[in-house]
């Protein structure tokens, strides 16, 4: 039987039992504008324009690499690596401190409404250890209920809130799942608030963690705070081989690291002609056949000369509007002719 792994901070479908015992009428997954699932961890307020004076931001890491931002207005003495109690959904939770400082302004959109309560004691650490042990049993119980209901969903992880006021079950599914009856079953067993959260394959990879093709820990499990869109256009701009096996991560999606240098490559491309453009070189007019973005050089085919000649960009002259190949004419960088 598979073992539970850690939860993440972002979900797509949110089915909660009503307040109290978790029983009653279930509404199933909520939907946002246009029928899309709501965005998890949406800030309650906009980010402030200035950093609060005399208040540190504390970044806390929970089970399964889930991260949260909290203010420390109580001035609780903390150190990186220490466990602390923080404000949670109608209660309190416990996690490990990974950063203390001013942070970023966008982090304060979350941190200004939730704060650090206290440093964890030995009794708190013992209770956290008990919670982790109970989550294995909760996982098995939920899995049995899913099989009994014949629901097409894959249970990924279970997380019990530190104060025992809520249990969150994370799952993946190809389609939207009506789990209202499952929520009632679980609420009847555990007698607490139940939340079922549908996540994506990228979130699942972040929960489980692992080692990437580079030999380092998954970026999403380590330092990434949120996912950003990664497109095939970015890979093309970086002249990467369009091989799905090399571009995809363990989650089956394009690797997040493709986005890291995208701005640099876009800036370098603005200073170079396109492949197929006609340029003026010190040895005569020619057509660009290859680009070396990092060296900011072009391989040019010049009529009457054998092979390709390589020139740095500052030695070339071209007109970005009129020297493009047919079908690709448009605005581009314009350099004065020599």
What features would you describe in this structure?
With 338 residues, this protein is an alpha+beta fold. It has 8 helices and 13 strands. The chain has 2 domains: 227 residues, no CATH class; 68 residues, SH3 type barrels, CATH 2.30.30. The chain is 22% helix and 23% strand. A 5-stranded antiparallel sheet has the order 3-2-5-4-6. Strand 11 and strand 12 form a beta hairpin. Helix 2 crosses helix 3. It starts with 12 loop residues before the first strand and ends in a 26-residue tail after the last strand.
Q: What order do the helices and strands come in, and which of them pair?
A:
Blueprint: E1 13-16, E2 57-61, E3 67-71, E4 83-88, E5 91-101, H1 108-111, E6 116-119, H2 122-149, E7 154-160, E8 166-172, H3 180-190, E9 193-198, H4 201-208, H5 219-222, H6 232-237, H7 244-247, H8 262-270, E10 278-281, E11 284-292, E12 297-301, E13 308-312
Parallel strand pairs: 8-9
Antiparallel strand pairs: 1-9, 2-3, 2-5, 4-5, 4-6, 7-8, 10-11, 11-12, 12-13
Helix pairs in contact: 2-3
């Amino acid at each position: 039987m598979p073992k539970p792994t850690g939860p993440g901070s972002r979900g797509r479908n949110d089915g909660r039992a009503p307040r109290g015992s978790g029983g009653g009428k279930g509404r199933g997954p909520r939907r946002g504008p246009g029928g899309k699932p709501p965005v998890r961890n949406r800030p309650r307020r906009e980010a402030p324009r200035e950093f609060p004076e005399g208040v540190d931001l504390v970044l806390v890491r929970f089970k399964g690499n889930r991260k949260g931002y909290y203010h420390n207005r109580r001035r609780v003495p903390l150190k990186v690596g220490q466990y602390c109690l923080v404000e949670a959904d109608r209660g309190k939770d416990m996690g490990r401190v990974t950063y203390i400082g001013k942070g970023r302004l966008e982090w304060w959109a979350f941190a200004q409404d939730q704060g650090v309560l206290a440093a964890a004691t030995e009794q708190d650490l013992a209770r956290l250890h008990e919670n982790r042990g109970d989550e294995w049993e909760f996982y098995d119980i939920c899995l049995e209920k899913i099989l009994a209901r014949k629901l097409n969903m894959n249970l990924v992880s279970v997380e019990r809130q530190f104060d025992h006021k809520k249990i969150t079950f994370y799952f993946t599914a190809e389609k939207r799942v009506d789990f209202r009856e499952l929520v009632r079953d679980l609420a009847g067993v555990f007698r607490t608030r139940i939340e079922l959260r549908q996540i994506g394959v990228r979130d699942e990879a972040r929960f489980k963690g692992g080692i990437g093709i580079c030999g380092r820990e998954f970026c999403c499990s380590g330092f990434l705070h949120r996912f950003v869109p990664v497109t095939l256009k970015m890979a093309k701009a970086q002249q990467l081989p369009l091989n799905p096996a090399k571009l995809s991560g363990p989650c089956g999606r394009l690797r997040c690291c493709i986005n890291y240098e995208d701005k640099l490559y876009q800036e370098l491309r603005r200073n170079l002609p396109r492949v197929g453009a006609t340029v003026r070189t010190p040895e005569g007019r020619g057509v660009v056949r290859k680009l070396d973005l990092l060296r900011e050089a072009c391989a040019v085919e010049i009529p009457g000369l054998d092979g390709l000649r390589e020139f740095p960009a500052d030695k070339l002259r071209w007109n970005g509007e009129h020297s493009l190949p047919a079908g690709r004419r448009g605005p581009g960088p314009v350099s004065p002719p020599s």
